[in-house]
């Protein structure tokens, strides 16, 4: 069972080292969940003497006014033999064998945190004492409750101390050691008053009565010690501390314990209670009770720790990785985030994420519909056919078929296909830009770095603009190629016209009759429709090859090349994270370290 108290000791030290003091904060706190014994009492109640009596050493600062201004976490470790020594958490490699030096270090460490202004602080001091004369026990010595501020302290100090004490003892895992002097009315006891507020049924409170030997003659504390005056769930404990004269004479603590035992054994009023009186009994009883409480809390602690680890890991994942300090690390981080974005962009195109299907919609619906909407009526109207045919013949009429006229009519129709082809390129460009925007918003780490997000977005947009321009050139060339070279076989398969039409006695403008011109228009329309059918398939292939596939392959090539040339300062500007986010991440990382360590430690104890 002793390893249970050692476990809590270890966790408390880890809490303090990693900034978990149990105070109100935006971070989960393990400190508040650990069972502890808080020592509460008013000034001059004998609180310090009780603690020193349990330890068997003079080690606490003494003086007038408020001496304890920071919580002191006192961890006692029983050793089999050897010399007694003490260690502070803030001085991990230094052993104190002179307990007068321990007293001075407590005062000095208090001043380091609070200054010499007699202010108070909730940041605890951790002191471990190793001795064969102690029991395994951990207690938290809190500042003494007071009613009046001393010189050099604000009037608010009274309420501040009470608030601090209450913040410790109101937690359900806190065992309260309420110290009250027997030579004062129990109804005025500061310790009993504040303990009753947070523990009205007395289920967590141990009452300790000091200065029994200083009561007025003819009075005794039997009714209190027997629980008749004020009942608690646990029996009251009476102690007899050293007098001020004994302290001044440096009376040995072991001798003082012996005198305490003799006092209760030899005083008629207390003889029947002697077996559960004294500081030795109190230390053993508190140690046993603390072990029992810790054992009962282990399952709940494990559940809390596992749940909190998941919450901390989730938030850390959301906040992203910490920023590297060197140029290489920063460059690697920028590249890694950029690749994450690039991968998400590709997943949209490949159908793993939504959005890529809109490109197919351009090819399957928008482009065919645009081609169908092309009106060739103007190009193939009777007047235009006659005009182009006669103009193409020039001064000498064609002999068999108006070849140049055909070419001019075909070209005038095919050139209008440039519009739908260009529109298809632009439509795919708009979709790709939207997918870039989506991928940026879905790249979680980019939320950390607004400058990098903007730079990456600009680089991707510029790359898509270049790809669009290249795609547009090539796609329009497909249309131009259809104008530049006609499919001869189509025209060779047409029925040969025997009659040239028209009357040679008429003028050149009346050379062809309407029937012949209509037949020419119909042939041209049939050829243009054939060309539209071919371009309907070749335009998407060109766009996919030059825009979509190139975007997948080389969207960030220019950006990566530029990143390779940037200096540390330029890289730092890309990773200019919000300082509040950096602080939050660092705090969460420390707290996660604490909880993982606690998970491992508690797991090993629970298993054993």
TrEMBL record:
A GO term, aspect molecular function: GTPase activity
Main localization of the protein described in the UniProt heading: cytoplasm
Keyword Cytoplasm in record: yes
Keyword RNA-binding set for record: no
SUPFAM superfamilies reported for this sequence: P-loop containing nucleoside triphosphate hydrolases
Cellular component, GO annotation: membrane; microtubule; phragmoplast
Entry's localization field: Cytoplasm, Cytoskeleton, Phragmoplast
Domain Dynamin-type G residue range list: 31-299
Keywords: Cytoplasm, GTP-binding, Hydrolase, Microtubule, Motor protein, Nucleotide-binding
Sequence ranges assigned to domain GED in this UniProt record: 517-608
InterPro entries associated with the record: Dynamin, Dynamin_GTPase, Dynamin_GTPase_CS, Dynamin_N, Dynamin_stalk, G_DYNAMIN_dom, GED, GED_dom
Family: Belongs to the TRAFAC class dynamin-like GTPase superfamily. Dynamin/Fzo/YdjA family.
PANTHER family, A to Z: DYNAMIN (PTHR11566), PHRAGMOPLASTIN DRP1A (PTHR11566:SF159)
UniProt name for this protein: Dynamin-related protein 5A
Organism of derivation: Stephania yunnanensis
């Amino acid at each position: 069972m002793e390893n249970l108290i050692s476990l809590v000791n270890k966790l408390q030290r880890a809490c303090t080292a990693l900034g978990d003091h149990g105070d109100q904060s935006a971070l989960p706190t393990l400190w508040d969940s650990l069972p502890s014994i808080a020592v509460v009492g008013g000034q001059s109640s004998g609180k310090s003497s009780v603690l020193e009596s349990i330890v068997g050493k003079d080690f606490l600062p003494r003086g007038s006014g408020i001496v304890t201004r920071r919580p002191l976490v006192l961890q006692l470790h029983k050793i089999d033999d050897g010399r007694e020594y003490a260690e502070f958490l803030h001085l991990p490699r230094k052993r104190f064998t002179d307990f007068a030096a321990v007293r001075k270090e407590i005062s000095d460490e208090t001043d380091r945190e609070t200054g010499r202004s007699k202010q108070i602080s909730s940041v605890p001091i951790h002191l471990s004492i190793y001795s064969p004369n102690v029991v395994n026990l951990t207690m938290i010595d809190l500042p003494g409750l007071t009613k009046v501020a001393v010189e050099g302290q604000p009037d608010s100090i009274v309420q501040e101390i009470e608030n601090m004490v209450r913040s410790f003892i109101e937690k359900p895992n806190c065992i309260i050691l309420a110290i009250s002097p027997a030579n004062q009315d129990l109804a005025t006891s500061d310790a009993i008053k504040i303990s009753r507020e947070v523990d009205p049924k007395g289920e967590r409170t141990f009452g300790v009565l000091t200065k029994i030997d200083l009561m007025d003659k003819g009075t005794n504390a039997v009714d209190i010690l027997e629980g008749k005056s004020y009942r608690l769930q646990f029996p009251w404990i009476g102690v007899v501390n050293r007098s001020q004269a004994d302290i001044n004479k440096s009376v040995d603590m072991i001798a003082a314990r012996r005198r305490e035992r003799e006092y209760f054994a030899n005083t008629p009023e207390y003889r029947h209670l002697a077996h559960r009186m004294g500081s030795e009994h109190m230390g053993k009883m508190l140690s046993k009770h603390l072990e029992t409480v810790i054992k009962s809390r282990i399952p709940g602690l494990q559940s809390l720790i596992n749940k909190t680890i998941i919450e901390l890991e989730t938030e850390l994942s959301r906040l992203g990785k910490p920023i590297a300090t060197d140029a290489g690390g920063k460059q690697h981080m920028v590249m890694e985030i950029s690749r994450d974005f690039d991968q998400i962009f590709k997943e949209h195109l490949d159908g793993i994420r939504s959005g890529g299907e809109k490109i197919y919609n351009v090819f399957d619906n928008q482009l065919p519909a645009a081609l169908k909407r092309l009106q060739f009526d103007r190009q193939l109207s009777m007047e235009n056919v006659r005009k182009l045919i006669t103009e193409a013949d020039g001064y000498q009429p064609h002999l068999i078929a108006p070849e140049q006229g055909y070419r001019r009519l075909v070209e005038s129709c095919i050139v209008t296909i440039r519009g739908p082809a260009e529109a298809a390129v632009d439509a795919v460009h708009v979709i790709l830009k939207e997918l870039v925007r989506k991928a940026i918003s879905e790249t979680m780490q980019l939320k950390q770095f607004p400058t990098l997000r903007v730079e990456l977005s600009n680089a991707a947009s510029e790359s898509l603009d270049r790809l669009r321009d290249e795609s547009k050139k090539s796609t329009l060339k497909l249309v131009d190629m259809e104008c530049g070279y006609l499919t001869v076989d189509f025209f060779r398969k047409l029925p040969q016209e025997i009659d040239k039409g028209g009357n040679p006695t008429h003028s050149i403008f009346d050379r062809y009759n309407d029937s012949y011109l209509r037949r020419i228009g119909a042939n041209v329309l049939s050829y243009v429709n054939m060309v539209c059918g071919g371009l309907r398939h070749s335009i998407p292939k060109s766009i996919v090859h030059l825009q979509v596939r190139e975007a997948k392959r080389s969207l960030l090539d220019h950006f990566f090349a530029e990143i390779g040339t940037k200096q540390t300062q330029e890289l730092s500007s890309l990773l200019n994270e919000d300082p509040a986010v950096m602080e939050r991440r660092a705090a969460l990382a420390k707290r996660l370290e604490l909880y993982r360590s606690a998970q491992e430690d508690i797991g090993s104890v629970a298993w054993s």
